[in-house]
Amino acid sequence: xxxxxxxxxxxxxxxxxxxxxxxxxxxxxxxxxxxxxxxxxxxxxxxxxxxxxxxxxxxxxxxxxxxxxxxxxxxxxxxxxxxxxxxxxxxxxxxxxxxxxxxxxxxxxxxxxxxxxxxxxxxxxxxxxxxxxxxxxxxxxxxxxxxxxxxxxxxxxxxxxxxxxxxxxxxxxxxxxxxxxxxxxxxxxxxxxxxxxxxxxxxxxxxxxxxxxxxxxxxxxxxxxxxx
Length: 228
What we know:
Number of domains: 2
CATH class of the largest domain: Alpha Beta
Order of helices and strands: HHEHEEHEEHEEEE
Structural class: alpha+beta
Helix content: 40-55%
Oligomer: single chain
Distance between the termini: 42 Å
CATH architecture of the largest domain: 2-Layer Sandwich
Strand content: 15-25%
CATH superfamily of the largest domain: Histidine kinase-like ATPase, C-terminal domain
Shape: elongated
Number of helices: 5
């Protein structure tokens, strides 16, 4: 445990150093150069704000990982389909992405806020890699949440590492992100007695599968695959 905590602190320090240095450099430019035009100042401030937002997001995710290491989430009976439906609505609103869903009514013993964040992270990852206009398919069946995108897929060398803290594939290093979103998904899955896996999708893209112990499957006709 102590070794893992030290490694997390070391990794976090490394990840925080780059956006902090970049933001500081941009702000120092404004301080040292009085002759900058208003347009140049706006551009430099905008770049600094981007770096600071990335750093804020990273700190929030680090805090979430740390909380998960300290204590198990408090659980209650939760409709997995309702939780996923809410996460999809938020992701669709933020990205204008089309989601095709088949959400079978299912009860699980879970911490709703924590599990909802994990599902949101899976959806955000799919949105990040999906080409414009391509749908994301989400299914719930027997306590399993499956998220399939139609992006470029994950290289074979990267597959074993996608849930590692701070791991970012070569193609992801120019995109926003902390490298912690999928690590949080794995931590949440394990805290709930479940697992999360990823594999290449037939025809391209990736399929992420979050498996949770089922408390009950509600006797209800499953909805047809429909866009949200």
